[in-house]
Amino acid sequence: MTNLLRKPTANTGKVHDITTKNANWGYVGFGLYHLKAGDIAAESTGDREVILVLVEGKADISAGDQDFGELGKRMNVFEQIPPVSVYVPNDQSWQAVATTDCTLAVCTAPGKGNYEARVLPEPEKNTRGKGANTRHVYPIAMEELDVADSLLVTEAFTPDGNWSSYPPHRHDTDDFPNMTFLEETYYHRINPKQGYVMQRVFTEDGELDESMAAYNGDVVLVPKGHHPVGVPYGFEGYYLNVMAGPLRKWRFENHSEFDWIAKRDA
């Protein structure tokens, strides 16, 4: 199994704990908790900022000396209603006490202390692509929202038989404004849950070329290269993206042999 594909390590508690050390890169971290009502998740942020995403379920969330109360309204991720998210800066601590069964994502990147803890604005759904390239996106904390030092966070729903993160594109070169270097994680969910999606991570020179079947709850790491996702007919795909790099901007380049698709559908 490729090291880019990470399986959950347990059924409950902290089931994913992807760090810069075990990912062998420099910016993105991703954790995921499966909590039962009454369970508690709590961490100190250290030198990293955090965006907590209530993927599904409800929890009482606090950060530092702020108590945000019970948050969350999406009980199943495939309801496709907007997620609730909380920003926590570096050098602080946070706690989540589940009030229902809860899936809590912990998105992290280097923090600089420029932002205070807060509940993030509810994102508006937008639709991208055409035909079998259609997908529906909630931009939780992209660059248009000035709420973080490093983190870029978004989620997407891909209908059955469709492609996402397509045409193939990359953001692995620090060349702003043409491109920004961003590491990225994909947390995948599948409906019905026994399905899978296919994700390919590849560079044009062939130095990296991995094709993976990602099942419900898996995480795929994208250190560089193109990274399209295909969803088989009969299944619906969801993914939560975390991106970070030296500059909090999302600038990418389509694969030269596929760019005509983006231009045709513009």
Could you provide a short overview of the structure?
The protein contains two helices and 23 strands.
CATH class: Mainly Beta
CATH topology: Jelly Rolls
Going by CATH, the architecture would be Sandwich
SS class: mainly beta
Instruction: List low-pLDDT spans.
Output: none
Largest sheet: 7 strands, antiparallel
Shape: globular
Instruction: List the helices and strands in order.
Output: EEHEEEEEEEEEEEEEEEEEEEEEH
- Cα-to-Cα separation, first versus last residue: 37 Å
Rg from Cα: 17 Å
Task: Tell me the total number of β-strands.
Answer: 23
Structural domain tally: 1
User: What percent of the residues sit in helical stretches (DSSP H or I)?
Assistant: under 10%
| CATH superfamily caption | Jelly Rolls
Major beta sheet, strand line-up: 1-20-17-22-14-13-12
Amount of beta strand: over 45%
**Average residue pLDDT:** 97
Counted by DSSP, the helix tally is 2
